[in-house]
Amino acid sequence: MKIAVLREADGETRVAAIPETVKKFIGLGAQVAVESGAGEKAGISDSDYKDAGASVAGRAAALKDAGIILCIAGPDPATLKGAAKGAMLAGALDPAHRAGDIAAYAKAGIEPLAMEKMPRITRAQSMDILSSQSNLAGYKAVVDAAAVYGRALPMMMTAAGTVSAAKVFVMGVGVAGLQAIATARRLGAQVSATDVRSATKEQILSLGAKPIFVEGVAGIEGEGQGGYASETSPEYQKAQAELVSGHIAKQDIVITTALIPGRPAPRLISDAQLASMRPGSVIVDLAAEAGGNVEGTSPGKTVVRHGVTIVGAVQLARTLPADSSALFARNLYNFLSAFWDKEAGKVDLPADDEIGKALRVAVTEDAVG
Ligand code: NAD
């Protein structure tokens, strides 16, 4: 089976295969064709791919007879002319916002596999693009906050006096939040964190940070399906707001990462709470694209309100293209190799498999038109 690796559209820095995964696909018996220039922004040259055993060509030649097409973001369907009928297209296809493109792929006979729909089961952990990219985003959020913050993070005792440690508060302790805690700790900050899922308390403690939790209020257990958060009770939200108000006024850097699948991001910091913070404090809002955890967040922009700098972080994984490409590419390899039929030399994704069911994006007759 031939695998085609696309060069992404402008604005995307990542690439869906790296020389390591190219070699591994070839080891399974596949041929790999990489679109010329695909790895440029991630520091991978055409000759690196050739050395790994891939052919490098223009898009039309790379697509010809490919049974699998790999991408980061779903390509414009018009650019897939010439792709073989029945080819699978795997990447972050964003079906929630790009239903028209999904329908167009299907109409062209291409099977869209939306990798962000990977189920949260143990078997699929190594295939999960949301986790691998969130982990890097959590790291980068702290690095970006440190770059904007006008002071140092660690405590320093110098001949000229003592610099006190920055206080960092992480709100939402999923994959990104855990990495943000670990990164802030490594930089020497005093770290605290909160979440609606009480299971995260242990994780916060194990990273050497202080858990800040609402106790003894109905609706405290905000753990929903698949380990995701669910909406909390109004009593819980009120208690959480009071707790946060007291705590936040003493923080220097806040990283917010709270998301609830299928809903706008919960509002965790109001304008009044912002006003209680010390001027010069910094907030990085990783939920900016989902509406923001902070009142006044603007996705992709940095704004200052009440003297507090709010960074509306968007797609932070793109700012680390070499690492984010490597992890994304390994997620794709781990997924495809798990369903590789060695005898037939191709991917066999059974219709009744939990992973296959989740990734296959339903396209209604109407949408296909
Ligand atoms: P996410 O990106 O959906 O949300 C980020 C965090 O925000 C979550 O921890 C959530 O509980 C928290 N949150 C939501 N509302 C909040 C509020 N009002 N106040 C404070 N915090 C709030 O989460 P995620 O990073 O995708 O991870 C969620 C869980 O799923 C984690 O336990 C993670 O380890 C698990 N997970 C499992 C797999 C797997 O098994 N394959 C893969 C990925 C994640």
UniProtKB/TrEMBL annotation:
Residue ranges of every copy of the Alanine dehydrogenase/pyridine nucleotide transhydrogenase NAD(H)-binding domain listed in the record: 146-312
UniProt keyword terms in alphabetical order: NAD, NADP, Nucleotide-binding, Translocase
Gene3D superfamilies: NAD(P)-binding Rossmann-like Domain
Annotated InterPro entries: Ala_DH/PNT_CS2, AlaDH/PNT_N, AlaDH/PNT_NAD(H)-bd, NAD(P)-bd_dom_sf
Matching CDD domains: Rubrum_tdh
EC number: 7.1.1.1
Primary role: The transhydrogenation between NADH and NADP is coupled to respiration and ATP hydrolysis and functions as a proton pump across the membrane.
Name the UniProt record assigns to this protein: proton-translocating NAD(P)(+) transhydrogenase
Originating organism: Sphingomonas alba
